[in-house]
Amino acid sequence: MIDFPYLSDIVRKTDSKILMLVADGLGGAPAPDSRRSELESARIPNLNRLAQASSAGLTIPVAPGVAPGSGPGHLALFGYDPLRYLIGRGALEAIGIEMELRPGDVAARGNFATIDADGNLVDRRAGRIASELAAPLAERLAQVNLNGLNVAVEHVKDYRFVLRLRGEGLSDQLTETDPQLTGAPPLMVEPRAKGAAAAAAAANAFVEHAREALRDQEAANMVLLRGWSVAPDLPSFGASYALMPAAIAAYPMYRGLASIVGMRVLKTGGDFAAEVRTLREHWDEHDFFFLHYKNTDAAGEDGDFDKKRKALESLDEFVPALLDLKPDVLMVAGDHSTPSIMAAHSWHPVPFLLHSQWTLGEGVDRFNERDLRRGSLGIFEAKHIMSLALAHAGKLAKFGP
Amino acid sequence: MIDFPYLSDIVRKTDSKILMLVADGLGGAPAPDSRRSELESARIPNLNRLAQASSAGLTIPVAPGVAPGSGPGHLALFGYDPLRYLIGRGALEAIGIEMELRPGDVAARGNFATIDADGNLVDRRAGRIASELAAPLAERLAQVNLNGLNVAVEHVKDYRFVLRLRGEGLSDQLTETDPQLTGAPPLMVEPRAKGAAAAAAAANAFVEHAREALRDQEAANMVLLRGWSVAPDLPSFGASYALMPAAIAAYPMYRGLASIVGMRVLKTGGDFAAEVRTLREHWDEHDFFFLHYKNTDAAGEDGDFDKKRKALESLDEFVPALLDLKPDVLMVAGDHSTPSIMAAHSWHPVPFLLHSQWTLGEGVDRFNERDLRRGSLGIFEAKHIMSLALAHAGKLAKFGP
Questions:
Q1: CATH topology of domain B7-87+234-392
Q2: How far is B341 from chain A (nearest CA, A)?
Q3: What is the value of pTM for the model shown?
């Protein structure tokens, strides 16, 4: 039962519906000149009005000071303690390109890299080689033949690919080959636990085959492998919360994260308008929807304050359409903050609101980092969001007599 | 040492006195028209003045989103982790009518119910049969003879009674007989663990005897049993905190909760004025008092906003009398919220203040949900209240060298 064993005694199935809108990288920080954050600078009348009739606060995705990746950021929103349920980098990379990971498979994130005649690294990213050059090289690597193992390699983007090994007796208890500096040779894969020696040997054999296969290349003449990991094994979201959950996300990474907790992933289009159409079409079929909005994070990662402001304004325009569906609980959450001034994921608590028939407003007039601090939910761990949602949806009985 | 093993090294006995006033169901929520909560609508000058000279905040009784029953709500106030120390429904019901539960006894909550000629349930509460009709039927059930077991049945109220079995080899690992729906027969009691088979057989035998004994009844011709439980085994409150604790409560449920943690239960009258007289009379005998005020919860459960507002105003009038006793620490707390708009216990954080010589106010001018959010204690778990009380009473030495 995920992290709240007490819920299993009190959760009950009802007809009420919960809609969780996740604006990726939602939180921001004040710009030096205006001293206002992206949310404070944006024209977001619908979100502000919603905040006036909601319970509100700020969520801590993992722990104070910790900037989460997309994996832990979303797991927390789904109620999984992100410090307990870990997803390896290789597995997340595979999830992000919808590459199947079965129990027993081992995945690593791969980089194309450049080595000199002595075998020392010159560039750990092969000059950030373009996708159209890298993709055929990934296909070459997929031809590598390892005795008794199935080898799959799929290109991700630019210099990045995923390696997946499938077969008997594999392990993810392996060291990485990236020395994290140039001028030195790539490292050998070493077993980190008993029983991982065979997997280490297979990994080293793959690297040698790859070096051979890339010998004719100038830039991408070597590979680096890291983040060895197996498929995550997570309790079912639907079974834990007595919900029939569905996920709507234009980006594969978020579809993958939803699928590993057992949500039904709905086919949708490439932008948020298409996502909202999908939501409307399937509204009667599910009692929980995870709806993902990517543009806020993308703009924040670009360090483009104005683009993030506009992404928030675009999102705001969809709020009435979401309310038209009359969800019993509508949440606006983020998996982490991505302040434009940092151009990166950050540790800052993330704006959050929950709207239901029981939330009549609490004096928070605007949806931004500063105002939400005064909300009744305070600053709290994101993993508690689902309990709050279930409570407001009337899906939790009283605890204890 | 309850849940804070570190306290045992630093707690020390002193002459200072702690008074914990628990207003049951204290927290509320804004009404749709006024957008003010019961506390915000009430005229409570004494509580407001007290808040101006206190440390203040909001407490989470069990966990975010979780609405507690009276049992876990009070255990948390007493410093017992309510997720760790569980009280079964049968045991709490027995506690609530001051029915003795010894180690080894098993108690269940009973309902009178109505079955048809085929044995299917028609009404799970026997038409909410009145107490004057139900009480003699409970006496009938108390005559049931089970081989080698002592059977006690006590009427609670309306259609409810408590069954207590006493004897060798009993267990509370039993399933309930209430199918939670009508049109089906009551369920058989099944053992939920090894060693519970004999107890299950005894329970089923009781049900058969009860059915016979009630055969002449139209409405209450059957019983349903649930919440099988043994007496809770809790560490001593007094020993854990080096206190001589006393409890004053007009309602038996709260006297029972105090007695199971080892507080001395003082004989008192039927209303809060009598409770305050009892407090004054025994002031010199104890260094900790749990003083319970019921009317706030009762009004909230009735969904009567105005009655709850008045219950708060009545409570407010007693504050000067409490201050006259010059407690070193005076706390005003609640075991959970009971918003009138929900007419039920809720998960909302509960108003809390602590007044002592070390609390000189912190800009919180009024005692209500909205203002207390800005208090120095923030939103915190209720189980920490006792540590704060001990600290403010000078009863905790420094931790560590």
A1: Alkaline Phosphatase, subunit A (3.40.720)
A2: 8
A3: 0.89
